Amino acid sequence: MFSLDLSNNQLTGLIPAWIGERMRSLLILSVKNNKFSGPIPLQICSLSDLHILDLSENNLSGSIPSCVGNLEGFKVELTDDEARQYQGSLTVEAKGTMLTYSNTLYLVNSIDLSSNSLSGEIPVEIASLYKLGTLNLSRNHLTGNIPTNMGKLGWIETLDLSINQLSSPIPPSITTLDFLTHLNLSYNDLSGRIPTSTQFQTNDDPTIFQGNDALCGPPLRKCFKDGTTTSDNGTDDEGETDDEDKLEKIWFFAVVGLGYFVGFWVFFGTLVIKKRWRIAYFRFIEACILVFDEWTWSFRHKTLGYLTCRRNT
Asked: Which of 52, 54, 167, 297 has the fewest Cβ atoms within 10 angstroms?
């Protein structure tokens, strides 16, 4: 037997350890959408020819065994004889959607452990499976860092680590994954700058990184040297806004002060230097005072005359 598909049933209990002990030639193992519980049996790591492993949508717990690095089937290409052993079709989650493979099933290299209750860290040994095309560990309780050697997954097209509790910065090695077309790191506790690369810059979908409040950089909010960031709507956080307001006030008072200083000395400096202008200026001021006095005198007498007239009538 080269394929074992027990998906979409109501099977319970532990995943049988004898699968790894007695079915060493398995190429496909799928127990998706059942009610299996308990840890992933270590005997699964003995399936050295495995190319598709789907344990998703169960109640599996415990950590991902580090012996996944022994799954040699994810490190080599199939021979023609092995490719002919693939029969039928299989629906797997890849590139963010459900895809059904039949004639090209032998080309699929997938590990899907999503929608379980797995905990602990992602084993670094998983990065040695460099022929892996799809790795889906989403919707678990994984913690710790994303392995820094993830860049070794040179053939990977789909990497979904969303809805876990992964922390620390995104390792820069992910930017070297040339075939990566679907990435989802949303809803974790990742922090720091999003690594800069041509691939990340051309993909401006913020949903890839959303739900990581401490992440910054395109396509999310800006990063600043002092650790402050802009808010999701593009405006600056309070610290950055205060700095900008202070700078604007400094420039405002500097420009106003300079303008006052220049205007004062242009006008009064001219009066000091030019005697004729000084005399003309004071005569103008005197004339303005006289006109103002005459106007106020006339206005006062007219007002008194009006009030007297009103009183007599």
From this structure: 297
